[in-house]
Amino acid sequence: MTVAVGKYGLSITDVVKVARFGARVELTEEALTEITATRTHIEALAEQETPVYGVSTGFGALARRHIPHELRAQLQLSLVRSHAAGSGPEVEKEVVRALMLLRLSTLATGRTGVRAEVAQTYADILNADITPVVHEYGSLGCSGDLAPLAHCALAAMGEGFVRDASGTKLPAGDALAAAGITPIVLREKEGLALINGTDGMLGMLCLAITDLQQLAKHADLATAMTVQGLRGTTGVYEPHLHELRPHAGQAVSAANILKLASRSPLLDAAFEEFKTTQVQDAYSIRCAPQVAGGFRDTVAHAVNVANIELNSAVDNPVVTKDGEVRSNGNFHGAPVAYVLDFLAIVVADLASISERRTDRFLDTARNRGLNAFLADDPGVDSGHMIAQYTQAAIVSELKRLANPASADSIPSSAMQEDHVSMGWSAARKLRKAIDGLTRVLAIEILTAARAIDMRGEAPSAPVHAVISALREQVPAPDTDRFLSPEIEATISLVADGTLLTAAEGESGPLG
């Protein structure tokens, strides 16, 4: 599996292949030609007496100082060393690989002015499965993800620390030598070109989009299980009702739920009782397509933002097509930061409605004939009482994580960089939020499966397949057992797609 990195950008799928699944990268000949052609302009400008930012000047608030020829290599070296100032826990391998790939993608546009060997070194490091050690704190999401990118550049220079393919931490110089990679020696503009960009936040956005698209389907699956476990109605998911309010995501979600829950013997048996005694389901069931649909539409907006960024050259200064070196503000992470925060909001709300559905199973006033807390012997057993507590604790945390990072700004660099995006922080909290949503949906699925089994009547074929797959890891309802391992097993089955695959084997592909 190889991903071509050329002058016209990447797709979200490309990023995930390299970052998460270790695909190799290969610079196209067109990209190498463009990089080489642009570099000639930089070298010509380096000989001029007129100061050029990033080529013959200092950086940020120090941009007014003209740097003589004999100090320019030291200028680039000092830039990377000083900016590799991250702190805190190590960032995940897939994030660092995405970060490096996206920086390489910008280099491949030919708009940054680096030499071809600099870009090739980044490709070689990725292909050798060497991962620079990058820390969680250090980026304000403006002037690029400076500290994270600087740690990667430092490793390419043979300094700092990396992890090899086995996960062992070692000095970068040793890892490069073992892989037969020559450390780069930076020249004019190159240090700056390696650390200016939205690559960290964008990489995390691409990974998040991929995860959230799958979780949207799991949310529909959870709803389809809950509506059966609670003896509700699928009438509210019929397409003609959603044509009255034609949001695209809403229609997809309703269609998925209907596909997963229709032809359910359990619901058929309860139809007359529901019509005469219940009339309609609670909002958390009836309005599930509206909430999950809005979630889907938000993810679709995120895809649009990501695709624009993936096909952009983010650097400052940038080398234009006519050879000018121009300062600009395209490194500012605001467009990405906003959508990362938007996603955190809808993640929290999708988890919130899932928790409310779960809670209905546990209350005899609302669960339509099931035991209290789905306990085998209520009073002796507690059933899923505390599973819902776990959900509630996660949902509360997700609401805190929904507080937007992009609404904050903190000035830096002696007030030269006086407005920043905080996009890296928005991305970091979104990753935590996605983990929380996965756990909340898994607990709803686990609880709904228990309720359906306790009913003793057959659910729809897709849900029957899901419960069968679940029962290979989690036993059927009985007296209380150690519950945490069962929750974790369900989370793993959601995360790896096992339950969704089981459902789609009966229903066909979901939207």
UniProtKB/TrEMBL annotation:
<dbReference type="InterPro" id="IPR001106">
    <property type="entry name" value="Aromatic_Lyase"/>
</dbReference>
<comment type="similarity">
    <text>Belongs to the PAL/histidase family.</text>
</comment>
<dbReference type="GO" id="GO:0019556">
    <property type="term" value="P:L-histidine catabolic process to glutamate and formamide"/>
</dbReference>
<dbReference type="Pfam" id="PF00221">
    <property type="entry name" value="Lyase_aromatic"/>
</dbReference>
<dbReference type="GO" id="GO:0019557">
    <property type="term" value="P:L-histidine catabolic process to glutamate and formate"/>
</dbReference>
<dbReference type="InterPro" id="IPR022313">
    <property type="entry name" value="Phe/His_NH3-lyase_AS"/>
</dbReference>
<dbReference type="GO" id="GO:0005737">
    <property type="term" value="C:cytoplasm"/>
</dbReference>
<dbReference type="GO" id="GO:0004397">
    <property type="term" value="F:histidine ammonia-lyase activity"/>
</dbReference>
<protein>
    <recommendedName>
        <fullName>Histidine ammonia-lyase</fullName>
        <ecNumber>4.3.1.3</ecNumber>
    </recommendedName>
</protein>
<comment type="pathway">
    <text>Amino-acid degradation; L-histidine degradation into L-glutamate; N-formimidoyl-L-glutamate from L-histidine: step 1/3.</text>
</comment>
<keyword id="KW-0369">Histidine metabolism</keyword>
<dbReference type="InterPro" id="IPR005921">
    <property type="entry name" value="HutH"/>
</dbReference>
<keyword id="KW-0456">Lyase</keyword>
<dbReference type="InterPro" id="IPR008948">
    <property type="entry name" value="L-Aspartase-like"/>
</dbReference>
<dbReference type="InterPro" id="IPR024083">
    <property type="entry name" value="Fumarase/histidase_N"/>
</dbReference>
